[in-house]
Design a protein that fits this description.
Layout: H1 14-24, E1 31-32, H2 49-59, H3 75-86, H4 91-94, E2 98-104, H5 105-120, E3 126-131, H6 135-143, E4 147-152, E5 154-155, E6 160-161, H7 163-172, E7 178-182, H8 195-207, E8 211-216, H9 226-229, H10 231-238, E9 243-248, H11 250-253, E10 260-266, H12 273-291, H13 298-307, H14 310-341, H15 349-352, E11 357-359, H16 364-374, E12 376-377, E13 383-385, H17 394-405
Parallel strand pairs: 1-12, 3-4, 3-7, 7-8, 8-9
Antiparallel strand pairs: 2-10, 5-6, 9-10, 11-13
Helix pairs in contact: 2-13, 2-14, 3-13, 5-6, 7-8, 8-10, 14-17, 16-17
Bound molecules: pyridoxal-5'-phosphate (PLP).
Pyridoxal-5'-phosphate binds next to helix 5.
């Protein structure tokens, strides 16, 4: 029988624990570098001006109601989400080889894909995750009953990609394995393969008949250029891979709490591809129905309005450049300050890494001192959210890092 008192307490989620400690610190110098959400130069959440505009228009729409969306979500959103990720001119769209369901943001998309593979993949494949990866990948894939394994990704020595380690691991992984790839702005390291490296990764995966599962949570947010940030996914589609894509609109629209995202299954080209893809869509719809019935409407309406209106779309691109530009400025500013101080070590990785996060190379003891002595909050693996830095705290942070490194 079930005995409630036998259920052991679970450990606190490390990121939410960090956020709590930050909130409770009374110091006026404190800096939050843990949170994975964009902050403006005053360390405040930023509502994208284009999102505000779309939101106002929706509020004033006399036809708005609160009916359920379809099981697959808002069709205008899912169609636009496909184009955004694979490119409007992609043969995969023309040949009806992609099915898309709106999901509970990127997390829900990863989950739906994991659940689908766990139910329908004939081999119960092992899912290969980068070491390190977004911590939730481990939990989500384990929860749906899949085995997970790691491939090397980050080199502590260069603070860049361990390309050789990664390729060797893929060569050694069983044929047919599923490989989770971060499309851009890898979380937590900020390290992405170059286009040449992506080509080589694709070549190995093709040879080993491996299955890519792309996670794209930062399109447009990383470089400020939506196409550039989608390059790897589009390259794999061009190469004819069958694959999953989990897409989040949390960061690039600043719609974190609205839980807006999409899951795509792309079938490989072939005469029966569109029929096979329709079968997959029908099975995904059943899974979705049993899990969430249908996805939330609010964020989907906002994102859809922006994606489908050329004027709003252009303004969105401008807002993306504002966010990515501020982050790039903070990267340059931090590196400059550390180098000017002669802080021991090399700091070029701060500017070569991309996106929300930087893997600083600070060790756990240094992170601990930053917290206890300097009121700087970051995860113990040395990751900082660049969005937590601004012109008011960057000097103080550089001074703090310099002091703990010496
Ligand atoms: N995947 C990666 C790599 C992420 O970094 C995140 C967010 O931090 C997500 C997925 C999903 O986030 P959300 O569920 O908020 O869209």
């Amino acid at each position: 029988v079930f005995t409630a008192s036998r259920v052991a307490a679970a450990p606190e989620d490390p990121l939410f624990g960090l956020a709590k400690a930050y909130r409770e610190d009374p110091s006026d110098k404190k800096i939050d570098l843990g949170i994975g959400a964009y902050r403006d130069n005053n360390a405040k959440p930023w509502i994208l001006p284009v999102v505000k505009k779309a939101d106002d228009a929706i509020h004033n729409d006399p036809n708005l109601n609160h009916e359920y969306l379809a099981i697959g979500g808002l069709p205008d959103l899912t169609a636009a989400a496909q184009k955004l990720v694979v490119g409007a001119e992609s043969p995969a769209i023309r040949e009806k080889r992609i099915c898309t369901l709106q999901t509970i943001s990127g997390t829900g998309a990863v989950h739906l894909g994991g659940l689908f593979l766990s139910k329908f993949h004939p081999l119960k494949p092992t899912i290969y995750l980068s070491d390190p990866t977004w911590a939730n990948h481990n939990q989500i894939f384990t929860n749906v009953g899949l085995n997970i394994a790691k491939y090397p990704y980050f080199s502590a020595k260069t603070k860049g990609l361990d390309f050789d380690g990664m390729v060797q691991a893929l060569q050694a992984a069983p044929t047919g394995s599923v490989v989770v790839l971060h499309a851009c702005a890898h979380n937590p390291t900020g390290v992405d393969p170059t286009q040449e490296q992506w080509r080589a990764i694709a070549a190995v995966m093709r040879e080993r008949n491996q299955f890519p599962f792309f996670d794209t949570a930062y399109q447009g947010f990383a470089s400020g250029d939506l196409n550039r940030d989608a390059w790897a996914i589009r390259y794999f589609v061009e190469q004819g891979f069958e694959m999953c894509v989990a897409q989040s609109f949390a960061k690039n629209f600043g719609l974190y709490g609205e839980r807006t995202g999409a899951f795509h299954f792309v079938s490989a080209p072939g005469s029966d591809a569109s029929e096979a893809n329709a079968h997959i869509a029908s099975q995904l719809a059943i899974l979705q129905r049993s899990e969430i019935s249908n996805p939330p409407a609010y964020g989907a309406r906002i994102a859809s309005r922006i994606l489908n209106d050329p004027v709003l779309f252009a303004q969105w691109e401008e807002d993306l450049r504002t966010m990515s530009g501020r982050i790039q400025e903070m990267r340059r500013g931090l590196r400059e300050r550390l180098e000017a101080r002669g802080t021991p070590g090399t700091w070029d990785h701060i500017t070569s890494q991309i996106g929300m996060f930087s893997f600083t190379g600070l060790n756990e003891a240094q992170v601990q001192t930053l917290r206890s002595k300097w009121h700087v909050y970051m995860t113990k693996n040395g990751r900082i959210s660049m969005a937590g830095l601004n012109t008011n705290n960057i000097d103080y942070f550089a001074e703090a890092v310099d002091s703990v490194v010496r």
